[in-house]
Design brief:
The chain is mainly α. Among the domains are: about 100 residues, no CATH class; about 30 residues. The longest helix is centred in the middle third of the chain and has 94 residues. The chain is rod-shaped. It is found in: Cytoplasm, Cytoskeleton, Spindle. Belongs to the HAUS1 family. Keywords: Cell cycle, Cell division, Coiled coil, Cytoplasm, Cytoskeleton, Microtubule, Mitosis. This is HAUS1 protein.
Amino acid sequence: VTIWLKKVFGDWPIPQHEVDEQTVNILCKLAEYNEATDRDVSLVIEGLKELSKEYEAEAKYLERLLSEELGLSIDKLSRKGTMYLDVLVSSAMTLETKDTSLASFIYAINERTSELYTTESENREMELELKNLIAKITTALKLETLLEKDLKNTQELTKVKKAKADCKSQDLQFLKLKCQELKRRIKAAEMDLAATGFDVSLSHKSLVSLAEKLDRLQKDIVPLKKKVKSYQDLPP
């Protein structure tokens, strides 16, 4: 594809284009079509050269025929005769006939008509293929636009979430540091209390433990009180 592009643009710089699978496929098809067209043109040129030689031979033959059989010379033809001869030669060259006979003209006209139908059919197929390619490219461009939009939205959402996560991380770090500070302060306070002869049994933890024991004892006493009361209600 690159070689073909350099050949097409020559000394001019190759335009910038996106290199992806779809673009390369399209350029490959264009390159193949261009090379096929060049080959066809070369064949047509060669064919025209051969026809030119044949027409020259035919012209000499006609000139000899007019001169020998009819005793006429091209230089002595009337204006109308010369015009008819020019039309005949021009038609033969246009139709690329082997000679100027009626059969050759009919055959050439039929061939050109068939080629015309074939060319029109190929043109319709190429137009349809080109239309499909344009539709695919349009769809791909729309999809690319949507993907870019989704990517942008995702990046923005990720940015917001990252900011929230960073904020939570900072809060968590602050709480960790605060807990560590409180633990140090509690430990320091306990050490200060111990240094002053503070009774450990009066600490918050000990008091909570005693309160829990008292609560359990009170719950255990309730059925005993009921039992004692039942004995007290008995007659003497």
